[in-house]
Design brief:
With 61 residues, the chain is mainly α. It contains four helices and no strands. The radius of gyration is 11 Å and the shape is flat. Residues 40-61 are annotated as: Disordered.
Length: 61
């Protein structure tokens, strides 16, 4: 149930103009959750695949 609510909020970020913004937020959000496990958040920052972030986040949940 919580994942469904979260995913509905993520739908707003799927607009092209918000993709880059969402990518930056996801990197910071992931680093905060992992508390030092920054290697998990690196694929977004190093490869710059912020456009795939919503899909990856959904799979991770």
């Amino acid at each position: 149930m919580i994942n469904d609510i979260l995913w509905k909020k993520l739908e707003w970020f799927r607009a092209p103009k918000n993709t880059l913004l969402f990518g930056n937020i996801l990197v910071k959000f992931t680093k905060i959750i992992n508390h030092g496990k920054s290697h998990i958040a690196k694929p977004y920052s190093s490869k710059g695949r912020s456009r795939d972030a919503p899909t990856s986040l959904r799979q991770r949940l």
